[in-house]
Recover the amino acids of this structure.
């Protein structure tokens, strides 16, 4: 069955996914009959991890089996996605993915998995908005003022994102508030902060 991934919203779309053969793998016995692993391809303590653990607790109570979170962070979700795609197709490995899963297909010339064929979407879990915030030392109270400041002082401002290929990274590059020639991008260290584009001034 062909699956088409579309970003329902520019800011976020989270899907809980499993292998294509999930339906075929569980027909012979009651499912689940043992622990289910949920791969979260982002660091512990971040929004995806908190959301995954919240759902894991509820699913465990409903299924009567342990639901274990397995954090496999790195490469904007590519590491966790590869592990999920290459896991045994028995229905006991799920992955909580964000819109970076869709974005990566266009950013990387070669992925060790097929982001469409190797996964079957089960459900949209949540969506969220991005925020543009700035350190108090940045002399800008509006987006218009921030754009003017960035253009007036090229290279003096920097923007922090959740990592290359993530929605915050692309929002920075596509936003009118972030001319590519006037600022630099720095990925945050784990755990990820809530989704935001954070501008900082000199010495901040």
């Amino acid at each position: 069955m062909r699956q088409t991934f579309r970003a329902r919203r520019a800011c976020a779309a989270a899907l809980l996914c499993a292998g294509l053969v999930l339906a075929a793998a569980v027909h012979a016995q009651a499912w689940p009959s043992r622990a289910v692993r949920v791969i979260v391809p982002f660091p512990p303590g971040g929004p995806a991890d908190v959301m995954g653990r919240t759902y894991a607790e509820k699913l465990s109570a409903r299924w009567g089996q342990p639901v274990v979170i397995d954090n496999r962070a790195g490469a904007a979700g590519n590491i966790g996605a590869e592990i999920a795609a290459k896991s045994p197709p028995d229905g006991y490995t799920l992955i909580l993915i964000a819109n970076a899963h869709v974005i990566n297909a266009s950013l990387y010339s070669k992925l060790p998995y097929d982001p469409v064929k190797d996964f079957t979407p089960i459900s949209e879990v949540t969506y969220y908005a991005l925020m543009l915030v700035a350190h108090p030392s940045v002399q800008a109270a509006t987006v218009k003022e921030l754009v003017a400041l960035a253009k007036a002082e090229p290279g003096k401002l920097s923007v922090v994102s959740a990592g290359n290929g993530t929605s915050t990274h692309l929002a920075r590059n596509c936003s009118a508030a972030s001319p590519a020639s006037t600022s630099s991008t720095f990925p945050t260290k784990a755990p990820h902060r809530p989704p935001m584009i954070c501008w900082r001034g000199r010495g901040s």
Notes: The chain is about 25% helix and 20% strand. The longest strand covers residues 36-40.
